[in-house]
Design goal:
By secondary structure, the chain is mainly α. 80% of the residues lie in helices and 0% in strands.
Length: 208
């Protein structure tokens, strides 16, 4: 529910920012295409939060799940790095998607930001899911407020500065804001105390 509220609030902020930044028309046209392509690549990382919630029970399971998530992040980063290669991005946007002119060039120039996205989304799934699994939801609400605040600051600053396209400002705002949320969640995850599992078979027996 909190994610839905954030999306409902953040998207108008991004759209409004792009409309007021340089290259507004091209930015508004390219934005949904870029987001759709990104989601095709990182949806497994976003949904990995459910795996974290289901599997994390103690420190050993947390470390195992963390290795799994980091492997997914590495694969996703590699895929996004390939998309960021100019020849590849031009082919995908021009030949596959069918964009042309200023919209295609603007979208292609923003693709260089893509390799950062798997890291922030995968890390968010790890830390967010771990806190949920440990029934520690307070920091999650605070992190959502932090994310929205940072997003608003980045968009407002980008529009005021006026030297970057609206699309670049919007994508940067999403990455930086999610990164701030991840940092906050990671800090609280690092403070968790893990219950030590006692192997009953190795416990000393009384009597005899």
């Amino acid at each position: 529910a909190l994610s839905l509220v954030f999306t409902t609030v953040s998207e108008p902020i991004l759209q409004s920012g792009m409309a007021r930044a340089p290259m507004s028309a091209a930015s508004l046209a390219a934005y949904p295409v870029c987001i759709a392509i990104v989601w095709l690549g990182v949806t497994p990382l976003y949904n990995a939060q459910q795996v974290v919630i289901a599997k994390v029970r103690d420190r050993a399971s947390y470390l195992a799940v963390r290795r799994f998530i980091f492997t997914m992040i590495a694969v996703g980063t590699g895929a996004m790095a390939v998309l960021a290669v100019p020849q590849v991005s031009q082919f995908v946007l021009g030949t596959v998607v069918g964009l042309s002119g200023e919209v295609r060039e603007l979208a292609a120039s923003t693709f260089k930001l893509l390799p950062a996205i798997p890291l922030v989304l995968g890390s968010r799934s790890l830390f967010h899911g771990t806190l949920v699994a440990r029934h520690h939801s307070g920091p999650i609400r605070s992190a959502a407020v932090l994310q929205l605040s940072v997003l608003l600051i980045i968009v407002a600053t980008g529009v005021w500065y006026g030297q970057f396209s609206g699309l670049f400002v919007a994508i940067c705002a999403k990455i930086v804001a999610t990164g701030a949320e991840v940092s906050y969640l990671a800090w609280h995850t690092s403070k968790l105390t893990w219950r030590q599992e006692v192997d009953e078979s190795g416990a000393p027996e009384n009597g005899g």
